[in-house]
Design goal:
Distance between the termini of chain B: 60 Å
Keywords (chain A): Oxidoreductase, Thiamine pyrophosphate
Order of helices and strands of chain B: HHEHHEHEHEEEEHEHHH
Shape of chain B: globular
Protein name (chain A): TPP-dependent acetoin dehydrogenase complex, E1 protein subunit beta
Radius of gyration of chain B: 19 Å
Strand order of the largest sheet of chain A: 3-2-4-5-7-6-12
Number of domains of chain B: 1
Number of helices of chain B: 10
CATH class of chain B: Alpha Beta
CATH superfamily of the largest domain in chain A: Thiamin diphosphate (ThDP)-binding fold, Pyr/PP domains
Radius of gyration of chain A: 19 Å
Pfam family, one (chain A): Transket_pyr
Shape of chain A: globular
Largest sheet of chain A: 7 strands, mixed
Number of strands of chain B: 8
Oligomer: heterodimer
Largest interface: A-B, 52 and 55 residues
Strand content of chain B: 5-15%
Structural class of chain A: alpha/beta
CATH topology of the largest domain in chain A: Rossmann fold
CATH superfamily of chain B: Thiamin diphosphate (ThDP)-binding fold, Pyr/PP domains
InterPro entries (chain A): THDP-binding, Transketo_C/PFOR_II, Transketolase-like_Pyr-bd, Transketolase_C
Order of helices and strands of chain A: EHEHEHEHHEHEHEEEEHEEHEHEHH
Strand content of chain A: 15-25%
GO molecular function, one term (chain A): magnesium ion binding
Chain lengths: 326, 325
């Protein structure tokens, strides 16, 4: 087997590739330089690019997001890290009011080419304030692009697209995927934002997944295949731009749909996908749509409790069996 | 400052004063929607600071930012057209009074979430450092902004990175409707906090355009030389209320009278007289300012509204607003 790369190392590799090709790419965040990031996702960047391009910040999320914005408005391409996605709330003004609006309210005068990276999701036992899947927060704000890769190759390819984007991108790296491995992509690998991937083909039901729920959906599909149900798994990769066309195309084959998301059911991205299907794909459906999502509770600490409230393989399998028999 | 330079500053202030008066009148005529936060009385800070800056320096302002936009190169016509929702407005009528921006001249925006732009100025100064341009970034803000977290995060980050950024507080004594002293534990809300972040904090008469220009010039030279950020607290007073709905009845009459007698335009006129500039020369400057603003009002009134299709442009860098494929 060729050398594999972890999702964790792919983050640093993806950033490094862009820093090598573009001197305007700079990094800032808490513990990202000497320490290499609390999740070791920026290991090696300080050594290769030096302290003029890799900056440790104080614990000041507003200053991190605001400074990244100011730098992006004036010629740089900052990659800012907000350590845990829960902490996006500490700088929410920048994500909700400043970064996504400035281009519009200035009549197109200002462009904000920045990436806000953040560690998202549960599964590591960090408790309620370090475990949420918050990509649905960003989904409520017009003007933010949202990327959430599921594989090391996509981490690198989507980071390339995000950093090169002239629009602001919130880049969700899933904590539960950090140790997973995959083949490293070739040099120059770019995954265009807004292109979903059909990661498993099947004719009976469409599972739409994102980030951590992609391997989960694939495991469920394997189990279901043993029962004669062939699930097609769509990895959305991005919530904005949203590749609804790929979802609808899959639905044309399968006539059945389940979304699998880690954020809470209440306001989750699955609701947006399902509403598009209801609007534009109702005639394609042979069964009701279903959403497997997080429960509307804060994330509990104990594994036994967390498994009750996040999507699991069993929950997906159960939901699909029900729909297949509909 | 010589007489010619001071007369230039005076005329710039006169244009701003007349533009603010026009904005007020146009609002009363129903031609300006929403709200306005007029800066009449605070002109010396924008004009003095701008005169001390390089043309390529960056400026970030607040919802009370008409004077900064005008001082940094926006014309009265494009500002008033923006307020009047015309296609020729500074931001194509997508911004309005609180969001006057002219990026081409370094006026990188006025932001209406109190204090939010301070970290942006830090980032612009960081960017200037990274690009080696010796540009400065200036954040103008009100006294009320000194009590939000971003103020302190910004001062600390600018200080620890020794960035070329100036924090200029326009202390007009009121946090919206409330005296700043009632909600702040120190007498100088900006300057007194600066030393806690390792930054010099100075106080200047914000109605004296000469004093402001001198102070900003000195702190700008210091920052460009690599000595880091500074806080300048400019004491001033707004002639109108906080916003258009506010008659400012909460202000003591004696206080209002005292400050109206300390008007930036009067102060500059006094200095001009001391420098031997005749009253007729000053009157000519006033007349030029009057004519500029009168023409601006007429042009803005005559301009068309924006094309409604513009509502769905400019979300993304490609010019569009598409969020799905």
């Amino acid at each position: 087997m060729a050398d594999l790369i972890t999702y964790r190392d792919a983050v640093a590799e993806g950033i490094a590739r862009e820093m090598r090709r573009d001197a305007s790419v700079v990094c800032l965040g808490e513990d990202i330089a000497e320490a290499g990031g609390v999740f070791k996702t920026t290991t090696g960047l300080l050594k290769e690019f030096g302290p003029e391009r890799v900056w440790d910040t104080p614990i000041s999320e507003q200053a991190i997001a605001g400074a990244a914005m100011g730098a992006a408005m004036t010629g740089m391409r900052p990659v800012a890290e907000i350590m845990f996605s829960d902490f996006l709330a500490c700088c929410w003004d920048y994500l909700a009011n400043e970064i996504p609006k400035v281009r519009y309210m200035t009549g197109g005068q200002v462009t904000v080419p920045l990436v806000v990276r953040t560690a998202n999701g549960g599964g590591l036992g960090f408790g309620a304030q370090h475990s949420q899947a918050t990509e649905n927060w960003a989904l409520t704000v017009p003007g933010l692009k949202i990327a959430a890769p599921a594989t090391p190759a996509d981490v690198i390819g989507m980071l390339a697209a995000a950093i090169r984007s002239d629009d602001p991108v919130v880049f969700f790296e899933h904590k539960a995927l950090l140790a997973t491995k995959g083949p490293p992509p070739p040099p120059g690998h770019v995954v265009e934002l807004g292109r979903a991937a059909v990661v498993r083909e099947g004719g009976d039901i469409t599972l739409v997944a994102l980030a951590s729920t992609v391997p989960l959906a694939l495991k469920a599909a394997d189990i279901l295949a043993g029962e004669g149900i062939e699930a097609e798994v769509v990895d959305l990769r991005c919530l904005v731009p949203l590749d609804a066309a790929t979802v609808l195309a899959s639905l044309r084959k399968t006539s059945r749909l389940v979304t699998v998301e880690e954020n809470p059911y209440q306001g989750g991205w699955g609701a947006t996908v399902v509403s598009i299907v209801a609007d534009e794909g109702f005639g394609l459906l042979d069964a009701p749509v279903r959403r497997v999502a997080g429960e509307c509770v804060p994330l509990p600490f104990a594994d036994a409790l967390e498994q009750q409230v996040v999507p699991t393989v069993d929950k997906v399998v159960t939901e699909v069996r029900g729909l297949a028999a509909y | 400052m010589d007489a010619g330079a001071l007369l230039d500053r005076y005329e710039r202030m006169a244009v701003i004063r007349r533009t603010e008066k026009a904005a007020h009148d146009l609002f009363l005529q129903g031609l300006v929607k929403g709200t306005t936060h007029l800066a009449a009385g605070q002109e010396a800070i924008a004009v003095g600071a701008s005169a001390a800056l390089r043309p390529d320096d960056y400026v970030f302002a607040t919802y009370r930012g008409h004077h900064h936009a005008l001082a940094r190169g926006a014309t009265p016509e494009e500002c008033l057209a923006e307020l009047m929702s015309r296609a020729t407005g500074l931001c194509g009528a997508k911004g309005g009074s609180m969001h006057l921006t002219k990026a081409a001249t370094g006026m990188l925006g006025s932001y209406a979430i109190v204090g939010a732009h301070l970290p942006m100025a830090v980032g612009a100064a960081w960017s200037a450092r990274l690009r080696g341009t010796e540009q400065l970034a200036v954040a103008f803000f009100g006294d009320g902004a000194t009590n939000i977290g971003a103020f302190h995060e910004s001062l600390n980050l600018a200080a620890v990175w020794r960035l070329p950024v100036l924090f200029v507080c326009e202390n007009n004594l009121y946090m919206e409707y409330t005296p700043i002293a009632d909600v702040t534990a120190v007498p100088r809300p900006a300057a007194d906090r600066a030393p806690a972040h390792g930054i010099p904090g100075e106080v200047v008469d914000g109605n004296d355009v000469v004093a402001v220009e001198e102070a900003v010039g000195r702190l700008a030279r210091r920052a460009r030389a690599g000595d880091g950020p500074a806080v300048l607290e400019a004491e001033t007073y707004r002639h109108f209320g906080h916003s258009r709905a506010d008659p400012a009845a909460y202000r003591p009459a004696e206080e209002v009278e005292r400050w109206l007698k300390h008007d930036p335009l009067d102060l500059a006129r006094g200095r001009l007289a001391e420098l031997g500039v005749g009253a007729e020369t000053v009157a000519e400057a006033d007349e030029r300012a009057r004519a500029v603003v009168e023409r601006a009002v007429a042009a803005a009134k005559a301009a068309p509204p924006p094309d409604p299709r513009e509502a769905l442009t400019d979300v993304w860098a490609d010019g569009g607003a598409a969020w799905r494929t």
